[in-house]
Specification:
The complex is a heterodimer of chains A (259) and B (327).
Chain A (H helix, E strand, L loop, with lengths): L7 E11 L4 E11 L3 E5 L6 H8 L7 E6 L8 H7 E4 L11 H11 L4 H14 L15 H13 L5 E5 L7 H18 L2 E6 L2 H4 L5 E6 L2 E6 L1 H8 L6 H14 L7
Parallel strand pairs in A: 3-7, 3-8, 5-6, 6-7
Antiparallel strand pairs in A: 1-2, 1-4, 8-9
Helix pairs in contact in A: 3-4, 4-5, 5-6, 8-9
Chain B lengths: L5 H6 L2 H14 L2 H20 L1 H11 L5 H7 L8 H17 L4 H6 L2 H5 L5 H35 L5 H31 L3 H30 L8 H15 L3 H13 L11 H9 L7 H32 L5
Helix pairs in contact in B: 2-9, 3-4, 3-6, 3-9, 6-9, 6-10, 6-11, 6-13, 9-10, 9-15, 10-11, 10-13, 10-15, 11-12, 13-15
The chains are: A alpha/beta (259), B mainly alpha (327).
Chain lengths: 259, 327
């Protein structure tokens, strides 16, 4: 980008999503710097997916502003989606198509040249260890394989930013370790900025440079794991415990909003 | 990274990519093969069963009348005509390609992934509708050619230019009619979350309209005008007209009326006539209408069918665009 390089690859400013009867995301402000892996952590229903959909321009913010690579996703969704790879929560594929055909569809939707796409897909399939299963119908894939295919799918367009929604949910522990290693390696190779959401804190804490702890639409704490541990009063705490303490604090705090 | 590349420009808009994928998947699907089989039966059955009746018609007509059209419109008890069978199967065809268009994508979990690609949201529904329409067109055109081929080879009947023109117009009308059911089924797939429920609703509406439509029209008509049916001839006629107008809410009725007008060159009227018109008709010398005159006869039905199709698609389109991605 020739324009004065945007400070952050993802920037949310007082981002808010209001539905008729409740507020899903309340004045959320955070940023993800270039090349950073940021974890948006919190329980189910905290508003993580809603936030992600707003960053992709798939849901309009009620107020506030999002910037992805300097662009407003609500105004230029196509440009944003061209540069952002997205692995949705419980990702699905067309069961009758093979893994390769599924990726090929994504490549065509992104307007990739067929030869280039075929090369790239071959490469990605081998990186996510699916070369052998590439021509089987996606119906026959296990959950872990689907998740790996999802990572490959998000990378087909060669994005600058990667958004992963609950990448480790619903796969077994061995699969989680594999998948996280895979993500770490692919991200390092490509120098991507990553926004990752999860409710399984312990699983992702090793992966993230920085985390934001998110509860009922509010960001209640943000920083590196050791920062947060310090704030919670014990350096050796695991993220799960930090989260529990901070969540309790946020609820007791005098300025905490009543539920 | 900014603008689209040359390749993207050549490849065209996103809906064509969606359409291409839906076609590739749809044309090899079991449901397409089953429907094609059904349609082929609808094509071959009447032509074989009715070949005797058609020969008779051909001999009686001795060249002047539209013998080639008889291939499509004549049936032999108990086998209905090709046109009749297509009219009956058409809704099924439309529903089969539309009932799981959107909710199927949601159920598979592919919707968020699809929408996060650089395409407009309406590309999804436009591409799917276009693909459905294309498959329908292929299936119906194919079976029509099959009937024409059997007619040419087995019965040695050669069509006149006028007959070919009529068949082409009828083909277009049939595609619009099936497209109407496709649009309606797509609407169901937007509104209803589960594919099975959506199919049931669409099929339910089809059966209700085709089986009970006439019955319902009769009931409502006798409710509005209790004495008419058994009264003086003029009253009875008025009653019949009322019934007719009510039954026109059923697209099937509109379609069969338009079909009659298009494929029967001697049909100068396809609805129940008024009294003055009836007198005129009784004095009319039997005549063959030209295609544009037949089109004029069927025009109201055609317009209403097109309007219903557009209305269903617009509702589905708007509904889909306003839906939350996760809905």
């Amino acid at each position: 980008m020739a324009i004065a390089a945007p400070a952050a690859h993802i920037q949310a400013t007082a981002l808010t999503k209001r539905y008729e009867d409740f507020i899903a995301v309340d004045e959320l402000t955070f940023q993800v710097g270039a090349g950073e892996i940021y974890g948006l952590l919190g329980p189910n229903g905290a508003g993580k997916t809603t936030t992600i959909l707003m960053l992709l321009g798939l849901s309009e913010p009620s107020s506030g502003e999002a910037r992805v690579l300097g662009l407003d996703p609500a105004r230029s969704p196509l440009e944003v989606k061209r540069m952002v790879g997205y692995l949705p929560d419980s990702v699905g594929f067309y069961g009758r198509l093979s893994g390769r055909e599924n990726l090929d569809y994504t490549a065509r939707l992104n307007g990739l040249e067929p030869d280039l796409a075929a090369h790239r897909i071959e490469d990605l399939l081998s990186q996510v260890h699916l070369t052998d299963a590439a021509d089987q119908p996606a119906d026959t894939y296990s959950r872990g394989m689907l998740q790996r295919l999802g990572v490959a799918d998000a990378l087909v367009k060669e994005p600058s930013v990667l958004i992963l929604d609950e990448p480790t949910a619903s796969i077994d522990p061995a699969g989680v370790a594999d998948l996280l290693d895979l993500i770490r390696r692919l991200v390092a190779e490509r120098g991507l900025s990553v926004l990752l959401s999860s409710h399984l804190l312990a699983q992702v804490e090793r992966l993230c440079d920085r985390v934001g702890i998110f509860q009922r639409g509010h960001l209640i704490a943000e920083g590196t794991i050791s920062d947060l541990a310090q704030r919670a009063g014990d350096r050796n705490l695991a993220l799960d415990d930090i989260y529990r303490r901070l969540a309790a604090e946020a609820q007791e705090a005098p300025d905490g909003r009543p539920d | 990274m900014a603008g689209p590349t040359d390749w993207q420009r050549r490849r065209g808009p996103g809906w064509r990519v969606v359409m291409g994928k839906e076609l590739a998947e749809g044309l090899t699907s079991l449901r397409f093969l089953i429907l094609l089989g059904l349609l082929s039966l609808a094509a071959a059955g009447p032509v074989y069963a009715a070949s005797g009746a058609i020969r008779d018609a051909a001999e009686r007509a001795s060249g002047a009348a539209a013998v080639f059209l008889a291939l499509f419109t004549i049936g032999a008890d108990p086998v209905p005509s090709f046109v009749g069978l297509v009219g009956f199967l058409a809704p099924l065809l439309g529903i089969a390609f539309g009932f799981d268009a959107i909710n199927g994508e949601r159920a598979q979990g592919t919707m968020p992934r699809l929408l996060s690609q650089p395409i407009h949201r309406d590309d999804v529904i436009n591409g799917k509708f276009a693909a459905g329409l294309a498959m329908i067109a292929v299936a119906v055109t194919g079976t029509m050619l099959l009937v024409a081929g059997i007619g040419l080879l087995r019965l040695g009947i050669v069509p006149s230019l006028g007959e070919v023109a009529r068949l082409v117009v009828w083909l277009a009308l049939t595609i619009v009619y099936i497209g109407m059911w496709l649009a309606f089924a797509t609407l169901c797939s937007v509104v209803v979350r589960r594919a099975a429920t959506s199919a049931l609703i669409a099929i339910g509406v089809w059966l209700a309209l085709s089986l009970f439509g006439v019955l319902l029209a009769r009931l409502v008509a006798s409710f509005i005008d209790p004495t008419g049916a058994t009264g003086a001839p003029a009253d009875a006629l008025a009653h019949a007209q009322l019934e007719q107008q009510l039954s026109a809410i059923s697209p099937g009725t509109l379609y069969s009326q338009a079909t009659t007008a298009l494929l029967t060159p001697s049909a100068t009227n396809v609805t129940v006539p008024g009294l003055a018109q009836l007198i005129q008709l009784s004095q009319q010398i039997p005549t063959q209408l030209s295609l544009d005159q037949s089109l004029l006869v069927a025009w109201p039905q055609i317009v209403i069918l097109v309007a219903i199709t557009i209305a269903c698609f617009v509702l589905a389109y708007v509904g889909f665009l306003r839906q939350e991605v996760r809905a």
